[in-house]
């Protein structure tokens, strides 16, 4: 599997589709990796449609290295995303993502808009319950473990489990941290998720949304989804100039249904419907 060094970090990636074609780079949510069911399948459908489709493992995900820098984890990952696009010399790229991947995609596009030709976003996390869930999942669990059992206890953190299992380098990097300094990072990263009255997305200010002038699709979330609320998707749509707001091509309760299926032990299915977006992403990226 190809590996790039971006900002000193080892980033695993795959490229599918014809060289020189319009590039599309996909970022999933959580700390899930590109081997998670639905991710590679989505990329292959885009490649079949004539696009240069890129999937990758963000820092702290999959086989890529771990990193504790940045005002927030998402902002650090957005820098890695921008760096990977430039490293691969993809040219202006369609940046797409869901859940945590939508946040990383927005941050990357707003901070480095010349690398982004198109933008597509779905399952955008927001509002108090959704954001506090993220603070607990991404930072609270690991910070609490470090406070009672040091870094050896962090080796049991569920949110880091896949990264540790797939990347011995990442595991040893986190194990080697000073617990006090690690907790400080987790506190800082958790604080990034504090709900705001001026923005729906952590790390994004109104001026950042104003920079997103590229053709953009924002997919509506359902009212049953408290992790990615409908209000958040509507707010993002209002803030992005000339964005198009669409219903997603899956069941209304997709997140809740697939989360329950995954939790039941039937296999990871959170992202298996994402490939249904392929025809609309192909349509979007045909626009110049």
UniProtKB/TrEMBL annotation:
GO molecular function terms attached to this record: hydrolase activity
Short name of any one Pfam family annotated for the protein: Abhydrolase_6
Entry keywords, A to Z: Hydrolase
All copies of domain AB hydrolase-1, residue ranges: 24-278
Name used for this protein in its record: Alpha/beta hydrolase
């Amino acid at each position: 599997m190809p590996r790039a060094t971006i900002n000193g970090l080892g980033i695993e990636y795959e490229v599918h589709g014809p060289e020189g074609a319009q590039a599309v780079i996909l970022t999933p949510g959580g700390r899930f990796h590109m081997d998670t069911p639905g991710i590679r399948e989505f990329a292959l459908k885009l490649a079949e449609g004539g696009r240069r489709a890129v999937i990758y493992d963000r820092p702290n995900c999959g086989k890529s290295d771990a990193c504790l820098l940045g005002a927030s984890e998402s902002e650090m990952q957005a820098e890695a995303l921008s760096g990977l696009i430039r490293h691969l010399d993809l040219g202006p790229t369609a940046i797409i993502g869901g859940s945590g991947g939508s946040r990383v995609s927005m941050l990357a596009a707003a901070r480095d808009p010349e690398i982004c030709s198109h933008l597509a976003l779905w399952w955008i996390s927001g509002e108090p319950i959704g954001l506090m869930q993220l603070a607990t999942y991404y930072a609270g669990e690991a910070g609490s473990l470090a406070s009672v059992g040091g870094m050896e206890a962090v080796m049991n953190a569920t949110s880091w489990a896949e990264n540790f299992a797939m990347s011995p380098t990442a595991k040893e990097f986190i194990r080697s941290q000073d617990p006090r300094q690690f907790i400080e990072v987790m506190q800082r990263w958790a604080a990034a998720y504090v709900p705001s009255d001026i923005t729906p997305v952590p790390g994004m200010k109104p001026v950042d949304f104003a920079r997103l002038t590229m053709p953009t699709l924002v997919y509506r979330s359902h009212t049953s989804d408290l992790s990615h609320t409908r209000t958040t998707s509507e707010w993002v749509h209002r803030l992005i100039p000339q964005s198009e707001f669409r219903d997603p091509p899956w069941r209304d309760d997709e997140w809740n249904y697939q989360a329950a299926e995954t939790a039941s032990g039937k296999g990871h299915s959170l992202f298996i419907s994402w490939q249904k977006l392929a025809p609309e992403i192909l349509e979007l990226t045909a626009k110049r």
